[in-house]
Amino acid sequence: MSAVEATAPEAVTGRPGAVAAPYDGGGRARGPGGVRRELRAVRVLWHREMVRLLRTKVQIVMGLVTPVMFLLVMGTGLESMGAVAGDAFAQFRGYLFPGVLVMATQAPALAVGLSVVMDRQTGMLRQAMVAPVRRVSLLLGLSLGGATCGAVYGALVLAISGAVGIAYHPLLLVALLEVAVIALLFTAGGMLAAVTIQRIQTFQVLMGLALMPLMFLSGAMFSPTGLPRWLGIVVHLNPLTYAVDAVRRTLPGELDMGGYAGSPQIVGWTPPVAVEVCFVAVLAVGMLVVAARRFSRRG
C-alpha cells in the first residue's frame, strides 16, 4: 500500500468518494471531526507500516543476520581471547549485546524515511497532500510505524538473549520499551533527512555515512571511559552513547565485563537511566518537530 492509498480522503474519512476538506493557512483541515480525522490518518499510516513489515518476512530474517553475526562470530571470537587477555574478554558477548540490540533497530526505522524520498520522486507524496489531514499527522503516523517496526526487530533480538548468558527476566520488557524510544530516535532522524533530501542516492549515502560512526562511537564496542581525551569527547557528545548505556544498565546481569567497562560521565556525574532515556526521547521529539515544520513548508 502506498502513502497515497493510505492517506486518500476515503481512507481517512471512511466514506467512499469523500472529497478533501478545505485547508486553512497552516495546512489544517477545516470542518467537523478534525481530531478524529487526524487520529485516523495516524492509525492508517501506522497500520501501513505494520502490513509492509509482515509482508517482508525475508527482509526480517536478513535484518537479523548482522546482529547475530556480531554476537555469535565477533563476540565469540573476542571471548576466546579471555584465556590470553584476561577474564574481562570472557564476558564480551554480554557487553556487546546492548549495542547489537540498538543496531538491529536501525534499518527498519530508517526504511520509513527512504519510503518518503521514494514517494516524493514518484509523485505519490504530492498526491498524499490532498488528504484532509494535517501534514504533521502524516509524518507522525509514518514515524510511529517505523518506530514500531524497529521495536519488533529489537524484540526478536531480545528473544536470543539467553544465548549470550542474559537471563530471561521481566527487565527485558523494560529494555524493550527503551528500544522503542531509540527506534523512534532513528525514525525521527530518517524523517528529518527525508524531508530535506530529494534524491534517493543522496539519502542512502548520508544515512550510511552517519550511522556507522554513530554506532562505533556509542560505547557499543568499547567502554566510553578510559579513552584518550579527544575520543572521549566525541563519544560523550554522541546521543547513542546514552541510549546504549541505558539498555546495558537495564538488562539483567552484570554486563560491564567484570567492572572493566563503565558508564559515560558528565563532569564526574553518571546520568541515571531515566535521565538517559528522557534525553533520547526529547531529542527524538525535537527532530520530529523540526521535520514536521520543514515538511509543512516544503508542501
UniProtKB/TrEMBL annotation:
<keyword id="KW-0472">Membrane</keyword>
<dbReference type="GO" id="GO:0140359">
    <property type="term" value="F:ABC-type transporter activity"/>
</dbReference>
<dbReference type="GO" id="GO:0043190">
    <property type="term" value="C:ATP-binding cassette (ABC) transporter complex"/>
</dbReference>
<feature type="transmembrane region" description="Helical">
    <location>
        <begin position="172"/>
        <end position="195"/>
    </location>
</feature>
<dbReference type="GO" id="GO:0046677">
    <property type="term" value="P:response to antibiotic"/>
</dbReference>
<feature type="transmembrane region" description="Helical">
    <location>
        <begin position="138"/>
        <end position="166"/>
    </location>
</feature>
<dbReference type="InterPro" id="IPR051784">
    <property type="entry name" value="Nod_factor_ABC_transporter"/>
</dbReference>
<keyword id="KW-0813">Transport</keyword>
<keyword id="KW-1003">Cell membrane</keyword>
<feature type="transmembrane region" description="Helical">
    <location>
        <begin position="58"/>
        <end position="75"/>
    </location>
</feature>
<feature type="transmembrane region" description="Helical">
    <location>
        <begin position="273"/>
        <end position="292"/>
    </location>
</feature>
<dbReference type="Pfam" id="PF01061">
    <property type="entry name" value="ABC2_membrane"/>
</dbReference>
<protein>
    <recommendedName>
        <fullName>Transport permease protein</fullName>
    </recommendedName>
</protein>
<feature type="transmembrane region" description="Helical">
    <location>
        <begin position="202"/>
        <end position="222"/>
    </location>
</feature>
<feature type="transmembrane region" description="Helical">
    <location>
        <begin position="95"/>
        <end position="117"/>
    </location>
</feature>
<comment type="similarity">
    <text>Belongs to the ABC-2 integral membrane protein family.</text>
</comment>
<dbReference type="InterPro" id="IPR000412">
    <property type="entry name" value="ABC_2_transport"/>
</dbReference>
<keyword id="KW-0046">Antibiotic resistance</keyword>
<keyword id="KW-1133">Transmembrane helix</keyword>
<keyword id="KW-0812">Transmembrane</keyword>
<dbReference type="InterPro" id="IPR013525">
    <property type="entry name" value="ABC2_TM"/>
</dbReference>
<dbReference type="InterPro" id="IPR047817">
    <property type="entry name" value="ABC2_TM_bact-type"/>
</dbReference>
